[in-house]
Amino acid sequence: MTMDAGGTTLARLARAKPPSPLMVAMAITVLHGAYSLWLGVLMAPDSGNYAYWSERLLDSGFAYGPLLAEAKVGFPAAPYALFATLLALLRLAFGEGWPTALVALNFAAHVGLGLGLVLLAHRLTGSGAAAWGALLLFLGCHDLLQWVSYVLADATFTLLAFVTFLLASKRILGEARSWLGVALPTMPGIFYRPTGIVLVPAVVLAWMLSRKPRIILRRGSVIGMTTVAAIAAAVSFAWLVQDPNRWPIGIFSNAFDIVGNGYRDGEVVNGRLETYHAPPSALSDYVLISLDRFGHFFAVGAAGYSPAHWLVSASFLLPCYALAGWLLLAIWRGKTSFSMQQRKVFILAAGAILAFAAFHALVQVDFDWRYRTPILPHLILLSAGGIADLLRRVPDR
């Protein structure tokens, strides 16, 4: 192919029409549905705990107070209460078939997530090719798909987190005004799973971006605020987990004990012994473990991955990192044709990714990177923005 022919092809691609909503829904339903049917209904170690507490909810007549006091878990039981309630309601409606009902609900949430993501990618970029790119990346994202078949909260929580982001984006873009609508999915998220607390700083960032049009976009402000906040959080948390008895109140005391044990083992990625540090002694050792966890949160794979697992993971993450990195660099340098409002939505997506990464850098990076699931739609959206930005640089022929 000659250079002129290649340029013409890219120019045509830049003018491509987006996939229709029906096509998006059908593609996800057929391709991902076949894989989910093949996997069937799967139980993870955490699934048994959820099943137990949902049954206890039914037996107690949904007496939350006594059950929350009864629960002997590392983290407070309240952040799991809403998901346990969902399972209890599915038990009421479907009896012994409740696991299958949850997986069906997971799949419906998964299809809704993909459809909303592709529509937002087109709405935000105005590029049909970017929408196609978002769809292809979503279809190729095994890290999103694999959790649909499990009796876990991941698929539904990821949709909840994305809906929060979507509603916040509409406020930034000026398509809605009241922030009450953003609070509606945010508050349930806090009681759905512990990582739901990360939705709060993400919404605060969205509000700041909507109220302060330029201050967050100034490079000096970004560097200064991010650096100060990250150092303060890492050092403060390291000081607490170095000696969990320093935590002054009863709530979360068990959680600090559990997290502190991980740090004392030098844990970076839970169960991935090749990533562990030597047991820490100085406060700086604890901070270094958190920094290493932050980096590993974005890892493409692990030493224990099979060649096929490496291929599946790399074929999704590497293009996403490259495209998202291109977009964020262009925004950083101010050399992009996206409007101020569009840039702020992309910055919100990047901020949400960093918030989840920072939370897990402090608490835990799990063995199979399941906790990374909520950031994947944001990563795909940034990648779609990178596609649109690159294609806009192609001369029209």
Fraction of helical residues: 55-70%
Kindly provide the radius of gyration, computed on alpha-carbon positions and rounded to a whole number of angstroms. Answer: 22 Å
Report the principal-axis shape: globular
SS summary, helix count: 17
Main sheet attributes: strand count, strand direction, barrel closure: none
Mean pLDDT figure: 90
Total count of strands: 0
N-to-C CA distance: 16 Å
Structural class: mainly alpha
Strand content: under 5%
Polypeptide structure, described:
The chain has about 400 residues and is mostly helical. About 70% of the residues lie in helices and about 0% in strands. The protein is built from 17 helices and no strands. Helix 6 (about 100-125) packs parallel to helix 9 (about 155-170). The longest helix is centred in the first third of the chain and has 28 residues, at about 100-125. It is globular and about 65 Å long.
Question: Could you write a compact summary of the structure shown?
Answer:
This protein is an all-alpha fold. The protein has helices spanning 3-14, 21-39, 45-59, 64-70, 81-94, 98-125, 128-139, 142-145, 154-172, 180-190, 199-211, 219-242, 253-264, 283-297, 307-333, 340-362, 376-392.
